[in-house]
From TrEMBL:
Top-rank taxon: Eukaryota
Organism: Buddleja alternifolia
Keyword Transferase: yes
Residues that bear N6-(pyridoxal phosphate)lysine: K203
Cofactor field: pyridoxal 5'-phosphate
Record flagged with keyword Transferase: yes
Protein name (database record): Branched-chain-amino-acid aminotransferase
Family of the protein in this entry: Belongs to the class-IV pyridoxal-phosphate-dependent aminotransferase family.
GO MF, one example: branched-chain-amino-acid transaminase activity
Pfam families, per database record: Aminotran_4
Native organism taxonomy: Eukaryota, Viridiplantae, Streptophyta, Embryophyta, Tracheophyta
Length: 356
């Protein structure tokens, strides 16, 4: 790499396209939308299957005011990332898992979904078309945001007559303003993210609107985000607004079990496997909030947040702190193992990487 990354010419291994890197400040990426060149769009009617889509210049989309997504929230989203390797190749992390999760969610939300292959082809095409926006190695990643929505018009409550699958991308850096430093959470005791039988276990857009009130209040008080409890006992950990949560005690790493109210995170599942491979004892079970009080470490996982160490948690006006010397040993170890794999710095022996 030359010192001036903006003039770097990037060779794509499969497309033979040589593109300049976008002329942006790669050293200061946060997690905000930076519009790129292309988006992918594919449509189908209710009762039919998606067949073919196309890349279009990125821009606004037109929707009927009566569209199912606008009126009744019939929509799902996904999140995954592309990394640029030092040799110029582009890596995706477990994209078939996102494809399958979208299909599971679509069933719950009464929507048709792209097949796994259609999803993968669409993601690859969108990433390659926007490759000048993939950050140089070590500077961040290209966040890929697939959306599936009821785009047809409905007035009475019913599944929409038409569906749109769309993918857009944005270069991103760290999710939290703390960067890689530990975040500060507050346990929410009044509001809940999800209820049994509801949609907490799928990535529907409404789950995320539902956390905004508690999240805004927490941020106004200086916290990074909110940790939710289960809505029945108000006692067991669920998840943070945008990520899953893990508690470390000795050699045991525990996380709330997937039971319909918790988003089955792909980073969550990957971290559990990485932890097992490093001889930690892994437990997926109900985790009582009291376990936060004597945990050695707490961390969060998600595509956007990656592995974020937690520095403090406030519960019923009591503040517990972790890792007085910064990032905890276990959080750091798991973060390094996962990101080295995602960035192509360690060999992928588990088949999690798709190279474009
Ligand atoms: C992700 O981590 O990709 C998500 O979808 C969470 C979102 C709130 C940024």
């Amino acid at each position: 790499f030359s010192n001036n990354v903006n003039s770097l010419r990037v060779a794509s291994p499969t497309s033979n396209v040589v593109s300049e890197l976008a002329d942006i400040d790669w050293d200061n990426l946060g997690f905000g939308l930076m519009t790129t060149d292309y988006m992918y769009i594919m449509k189908c009617a209710q009762g039919e299957a998606f067949s073919s889509g196309e890349l279009k210049r990125f821009g606004n989309i037109e929707l009927n005011p009566s569209a199912g997504i606008l009126n009744y929230g019939q929509g799902l989203f996904e999140g995954l990332k592309a990394y640029r390797k030092h040799d110029g190749n582009i890596l995706l992390f477990r994209p078939e898992e996102n494809a399958q999760r979208l299909r599971n969610g679509a069933e719950r939300m009464c929507m048709p979904a792209p097949t796994v292959d259609q999803f993968l082809e669409a993601v690859k095409a969108t990433v390659l078309a926007n490759q000048r926006w993939i950050p140089p190695p070590g500077k961040g990643s290209l966040y890929i945001r697939p959306l599936l929505m009821g785009s047809g018009a409905v007035l009475g409550l019913a599944p929409a007559p038409e569906y749109t699958f769309l993918i857009y991308v944005s270069p991103v850096g760290n999710y939290f303003k703390e960067g890689l430093a530990p975040i500060n959470l507050i346990v929410e005791t009044e509001m809940h993210r999800a209820t049994p039988g509801g949609t907490g276990g799928v990535k529907t857009i409404g789950n995320y609107a539902a956390v905004l009130q508690a999240q805004s209040a927490a941020k106004a008080k200086g916290y990074s985000d909110v940790l939710y409890l289960d809505s029945i006992h108000k006692k067991y950990l669920e998840e943070v607004s945008s990520c899953n949560v893990f508690v470390v005690k000795g050699n045991v790493i525990s996380t709330p079990a997937i039971k319909g109210t918790i988003l089955p995170g792909i980073t969550r599942k990957s971290i559990l496997d990485v932890a097992r491979s490093q001889d930690f004892q892994v437990e997926e079970r109900p985790v009582p909030v009291e376990e936060l009080l004597d945990a050695d470490e707490v961390f969060c996982t998600g595509t956007a947040v990656v592995v974020s160490p937690v520095g403090s948690i406030t519960y019923l006006n009591k503040r517990v702190t972790y890792g007085s010397e910064g990032v905890g040993r276990v959080s750091q170890q798991l973060y390094s193992a996962l990101t080295s794999l995602q960035m192509g710095l360690t060999e992928d022996t588990v088949g999690w990487i798709t190279e474009l």
